[in-house]
């Protein structure tokens, strides 16, 4: 038998680990709420930095440098890399999704230039389904009128720089956290608003192309999805 193997070797190793080891002293440097991958839900966290030391008989004696930072879940006590904080909480994600659907609906209505009753009803239904339970057709119409009066940015013409900025601000932060079907669903909801009162206008097509770009959907897929939306299911 090789040296150090077998029951005697394992016992010796266990004894040595009790004599010598490494200890980490953690210091809290921040806290907040995050989506815990371990728990699968929103939890409180502490952001920690640590200092490692050699320990003799459990007593730290020699420094070994820093470690971390890490994020510690207050519920499950597990440690994660700080990149977990890039993922929005469930509450924040829901708000981002509501804002995205609302912004897309307003952009398509404004780009269409008419705000027909059918378009308003389709837009309001989509916005309510996204979480704005009290959204009405009248509210959307008033918002579109306010946008058109705001220095003439939205007049039913092809997508202006101001409109593109509005869409990117709402959609860029959301896109990395949505799978492809979720991103396509937002684009298709906008397409349904545009088609509610007839074929796409040039302004609506341009706005929807901007929506697709902000959602990281390639132009070929945008064309395919907009064509599919015209086909009755």
Short description:
The chain is an alpha+beta fold and 233 residues long. It contains eight helices and four strands. The protein has a four-stranded antiparallel β-sheet.
Strand content: 15-25%
Span from first to last CA? 73 Å
- Mean pLDDT, all residues: 84
Helix share bin? 40-55%
Please state how the strands of the largest beta sheet are arranged side by side: 1-2-3-4
Secondary-structure element series:
HEEEEHHHHHHH
Ranges where pLDDT stays below 50 over 5 or more residues in a row are 1-5
What global shape is seen? elongated
Task: Quickly list its features.
233 residues; alpha+beta; four-stranded antiparallel β-sheet; 4 strands; disordered N terminus
Q: How would you characterize the overall build of this protein?
A:
With 233 residues, the chain is an alpha+beta fold. 50% of the residues lie in helices and 21% in strands. It has helices spanning 6-19, 90-112, 117-130, 137-149, 161-171, 180-195, 202-214, 219-230, and strands spanning 20-36, 41-56, 59-73, 79-80. It has a 4-stranded antiparallel beta sheet. α2 crosses α4, α2 (90-112) runs antiparallel to α7 and α5 (161-171) runs parallel beside α7. The longest helix is centred in the middle third of the chain and has 23 residues, at 90-112. The radius of gyration is 27 Å and the shape is elongated. Residues 1-5 have low confidence and may be disordered. It holds the Pfam family TerB. Residues 100-224 form the Co-chaperone DjlA N-terminal domain. InterPro entries: DjlA_N, TerB-like.
